[in-house]
Structure formats: C-alpha cells, structure tokens
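tokens incoming
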C-alpha cells in the first residue's frame, strides 16, 4: 500500500494508470524469473542453485552400469571376446591411473570400466593402459587379486625396489603421514608420469581413480588435441602444458577482473529498456498517454535494475556459458582429475614434482604454469566426471549427503562436480561415437 500511495503521490491524476502501465512490465518479469529459475538450478553460481538435485548423478549412473557389465565380462570371458586388451606398438596415448585403497568404497574398477567400455578395436589399440597399484604391498588393494586387472591393462605398474626407497614409501602409507602432507600422492603421480614417458606415446593422459569417462571420450579427446595443435600454430608458440578433460563450474562465477564486460551489458540493458519503451510509445499512439516521460524514466531505471539483478542472480554459467570446443583455461579450471600432457612436457613435470616433494599436484602445476605463462587448454564440455565423494586423503573429509539442501553441507571433495556432464544423453552419445568409428573405417 505504501508503494501504491507513493506513485499516486507522484502522479495523483494518473496513479492507477501508472500502476497499470507498470504491471505490463512486472507480469512478464515474473514469468522471466520463473523461467530463469528453472534453467539455472544446476548453476553453482546462481541464486537459484538447487544442490538437492544438481549433485544427483544421472548420466554417470548409466556409465557406471555399463562399466560394471564390461568388467564382469572381462572377469568371466576370454579377453579376446571383449577387445584385444593390448596396445599397438606405437600407441598415440599412454593412459595412466594410480589407485590406493579407500575405506568402505571402490571407484577404481568402475573408472577403468568407463574408460574402456565402448572403445572400438582400433581405439583400444591406440591406448597403452597403465594401472598403477600404489601400495608397497599390492595385495592390500582388492583389485590386485582380481582377474580383470591383468586382462585389461597393458601394464600393471608396481613399485620397483631398485628405483624407489621402499621403506620410505611404506612410511608414507600411514594415516598420520597422509594427514601431515601430500608427499606420497605427488611421488605416485611422478612415478606414473615416468612410466608413461618410457612408452614414448605422443600424449599422456593421467586420470585419478575416481572418475567416470563418457561414451566417446576417446574421439572427442583426439579431436580436441587436433584443435590444440592447430591453435598453437596460429598463436605461434610451440609449447603448451596440458589439456583439461575435467573441470568444475564451481569457480565459474562473476569475476571482478571482467567488470568492463559486465558494465557494457548493463549499459546495453538500460538502452534496450529505454528504447523499447520509446519505440512502443512512438509506434502505438493508443499507449502514448500511459507512457509520459516520467514513466519512461522510472520504468527504464527500475526495469533495468531488475533485469540486471536477474542477470547476475541467474549465474555466469547460465547467462554467459563458454562455447563448446577447445579453449584456453588458465584460471578456475580445477583440478587434476583428468589431464592430457604432450610427451615433450613430461620431463618438466617430473622435475617439478620431484623438486617440490610435498604438495598437491594441481596447485603445484598451476603455480608453475602461472610463473612461466604456460598455455593451458580445456575441452568443453567435460568428457569426465568426478564421482569420488569419499576422500583418499586419510581424513575422510567427505561425508556423503544424499540430498544436500545447501552447498555448505558438502565437503570440498564432494563439490568437485561437473554439472553439465549429468545432462548427457546416453543414446545420443553412443550414436555419435558409432558415427566416428564408422568414419574412421571408411
């Protein structure tokens, strides 16, 4: 009522007419809010973000079921009935996965299954698969005694006592050592990189043991690398550091350094609202009495503020999504779940991690990249998903919540989630993959 009296005071002779005019704006605005709310519920930077549904797996469930079926077939059948499990003499990729036991959960088997399930014979032959059981006593890991591991891997990697200090590695396997630092994880990553370096494949893919690979990840990654090499030639720089196959939208917010872009769109919004009202008044004489200059001014200011507020409330991923394709991503990508490295950079990374000795792979890599202005790429949309909601750090920081109401209820591990990945259509991806396989055979 106070709002009505205010406008009637400003325009006593046309108070009701003013409110009627403004209602023509507020009603469409209400429907726009409802539409934006439905579209941005999976955008972690949105005011309308709904964790209770956004973190629910959908496509991942399909891939995990396919992976389980694939692994069961590997365990019960001769390997040749699935695929030739061995890489060719000159594979394009070395793909390495290091794994350790996690209390109460197993992700490793499913990760391997999603990586291999659906690959054509030629695709599988182009991958040298190294599965690294990162325990001084490999029998501690249940996968080591299971037949699928040796059937599907090109190389089951174990610690070689002639290469490493086994006693020191054993000392890092205690829960206390895991809490005190990240020496072992960094060492394992370097050890796996060295193993891939010996393969001499043009590219090395390092995956963590708690990811899900989408159907068709291989051809999308290969196409992305072609795009990377093409763009590198255009840039005129010979060296790049990595291609990211997983990222989380968690950090894709409204960043302060992009304020000129936001200012431009804000000014554009004000101009759009004002010009729309003036245009309606000019071309619709019957409405002209309801749109005097004072109403146009108020409606332009209020309408613009409401639209700009809704724009930012909707979230950056919703309103300004990064186009599909291969793009540089020097910031906000996170984390080290799935990275592709050119063979020429493996030595640099091993030397870097060895010199640091303690730390997190992703943080050390990004610090190095920032200091040396390294070029970092990302494939969009993500072809991998992080599903490891129980930590491997020894502190069990992640507590699985079935339907969290707020992001604050989630641990940092649980927030490593690609929201767009779960919107994939399994049938559409399978058809796309089959088209690519057929095209390769033509």
């Amino acid at each position: 009522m106070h709002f009505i009296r205010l406008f009637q005071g400003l325009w006593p002779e046309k108070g009701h007419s003013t409110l009627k005019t403004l209602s023509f704006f507020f009603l469409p605005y209400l429907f726009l809010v409802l539409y934006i709310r439905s579209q941005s519920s999976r955008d972690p930077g949105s005011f309308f973000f709904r964790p209770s549904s956004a973190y629910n797996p959908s496509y991942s469930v399909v891939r995990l079921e396919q992976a389980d079926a694939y692994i069961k077939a590997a365990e019960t059948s001769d390997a040749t009935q699935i695929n030739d499990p061995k890489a060719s003499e000159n594979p394009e990729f070395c793909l390495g996965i290091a794994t350790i036991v996690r209390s109460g959960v197993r992700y490793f088997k499913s990760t391997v299954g999603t990586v291999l399930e659906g690959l054509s014979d030629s695709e599988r032959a182009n991958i040298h698969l190294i599965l690294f059981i990162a325990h001084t006593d490999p029998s501690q890991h249940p996968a080591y005694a299971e037949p699928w591991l040796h059937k599907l891997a090109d190389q089951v990697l174990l610690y070689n006592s002639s290469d490493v200090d086994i006693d020191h590695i054993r000392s890092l396997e205690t829960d206390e050592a895991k809490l005190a630092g990240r020496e072992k994880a960094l060492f394992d990553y370097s050890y796996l990189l060295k193993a891939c370096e010996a393969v001499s494949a043009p590219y090395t893919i390092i995956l963590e043991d708690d990811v899900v690979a989408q159907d068709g990840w291989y051809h999308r990654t290969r196409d992305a690398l072609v795009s990377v090499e093409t763009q590198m030639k255009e840039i005129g720089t010979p060296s790049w550091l990595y291609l990211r196959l997983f990222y989380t939208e968690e950090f894709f917010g409204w960043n302060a350094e992009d304020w000129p872009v936001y200012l431009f769109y804000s000014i554009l919004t004000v101009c759009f609202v004002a010009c729309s009202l003036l245009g309606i008044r000019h071309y619709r004489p019957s409405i002209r009495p309801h749109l005097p200059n004072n109403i146009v001014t108020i409606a332009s200011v209020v309408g613009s503020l409401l639209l700009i507020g809704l724009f930012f409330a909707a979230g950056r991923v919703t309103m300004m999504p990064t186009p599909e394709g291969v793009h540089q991503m020097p910031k906000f990508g996170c984390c080290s779940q799935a990275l592709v490295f050119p063979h020429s950079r493996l030595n640099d990374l091993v030397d870097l991690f060895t010199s640091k000795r303690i730390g997190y792979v992703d943080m050390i890599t990004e610090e190095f990249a920032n200091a040396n202005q390294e070029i970092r790429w990302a494939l969009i949309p993500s072809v991998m998903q992080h599903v490891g909601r129980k930590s491997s750090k020894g502190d069990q920081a992640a507590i699985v919540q079935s339907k969290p109401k707020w992001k604050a209820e989630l641990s940092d591990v649980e927030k490593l989630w690609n929201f767009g990945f779960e919107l994939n259509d399994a049938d559409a991806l399978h058809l796309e993959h089959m088209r690519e396989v057929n095209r390769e055979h033509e």
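note: The mean pLDDT is 85.
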